[in-house]
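pasting for the record
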Amino acid sequence: MSDEQPPAPGRLTSFQQTRREFARRDYEKARTEDLAQMEEAALILLVERLRNRLGDVLELVDEVSAASAPPPPPSGGTDTTGRGGHQYGV
């Protein structure tokens, strides 16, 4: 668990920024590699590293999206249908 304060809306925590920078660095390194000259094992490792980074970045996007999403509507007893409490207009 982290002692880090929640960031202001639209800002990343320092941990999230670090994750983003690791992904950016791995991406730039992969772009500069001459893939045709790499051995098979090195290509496999590169693909695995990028696959893991992609998964981490998607989790980061989910975290940021969840933090900025509006809270769900209250449940139970509140009419949100606009039809006087009748869900199906009966």
